[in-house]
Automatic annotation (TrEMBL):
GO term, biological process aspect, one: FMN biosynthetic process
Name assigned to this protein: Riboflavin kinase
Upper taxonomic lineage: Archaea, Thermoproteota, Thermoprotei, Thermoproteales, Thermoproteaceae
Pathway connected to this protein: Cofactor biosynthesis; FMN biosynthesis; FMN from riboflavin (CTP route): step 1/1
InterPro entries: ArsR-like_HTH, RibK_CTP-dep, Riboflavin_kinase_CTP-dep, Riboflavin_kinase_dom_sf, WH-like_DNA-bd_sf, WH_DNA-bd_sf
Organism annotation: Thermoproteus tenax (strain ATCC 35583 / DSM 2078 / JCM 9277 / NBRC 100435 / Kra 1)
Length: 212
């Protein structure tokens, strides 16, 4: 990481703690003068890392820089995968509909590297695996951007590459879903139930890659 990028990451990490606050409140929280913070914000806006407006708000470019820094740290500390485990459960049929949408399917092919089978494998996590599921909500993952088809708007979906029985798949973290937090949905280039003979209640382990 070069010196300028290192300094910018430091500023953005500090500003992230005050997102949504006005400049005066943020300056007090960060122990800076209002003038000093205003000067730093002006420079960061010029570089595209902070949005215009009366409140502290990182831009998508700023968030992406923090994601890159997080990936660097995770690689350094050797934190690259987590294991989720639970049992196969019957789905609601939502997966087949959403995965078949062109707006998502095309992004899955481009960003995850496979054409998804039109459906998902639903896995109910064991209670002691739930904390690891929450890690995925906080980490960047691979963003499948939401879109509108002119009739309905579909939200963002975050994905993490994973493997099940050595098959390359992806776990989805969906903004809007009828499932509770104990359920994860897995997409794959094949119908996992058929390929591996899975039935409701069968145990399954998912090796999730945190760095894509």
């Amino acid at each position: 990481m070069d010196k300028q990028r290192h300094l910018i990451v430091g500023y953005l990490l500090a500003l992230a703690r005050t997102e949504g606050e006005g400049i005066s409140e943020a300056a007090r929280a960060l122990g800076l003068s209002r003038q000093g913070l205003h000067k730093a914000l002006r420079k960061l806006r010029e570089l595209g890392y902070v949005e215009e407006g009366p409140e502290i708000r990182l831009s998508e470019r700023g968030r992406e820089l923090l994601r890159e820094a997080l990936r660097d740290l995770m690689e350094y500390f050797g934190v690259s995968t987590i294991r989720l485990y639970g049992y196969v459960a019957r789905g609601l049929g939502e997966g087949a509909f959403y995965v078949s949408l062109e707006g998502y399917r095309r992004q899955i092919e481009e960003k995850l590297g496979f054409t998804p089978y039109p459906g998902t494998l639903n896995v109910v996590l064991a209670p002691d695996a739930l904390p690891y599921r929450r890690y995925l909500e906080a980490l960047p993952g691979v963003l499948l951007k939401g879109f509108s088809d002119g009739v309905r708007t579909y939200g963002n979906v975050k994905a993490f590459k994973c493997t099940i029985f050595d098959m390359d798949c992806a776990v989805l973290v969906i903004e809007r879903t009828h499932h509770g937090p104990e359920v994860v949905e897995v997409i794959a280039p094949v119908k996992l139930r058929d390929v591996y003979g899975l039935k409701d209640g069968d145990p399954v382990s998912i090796e999730v890659k945190l760095i894509s």
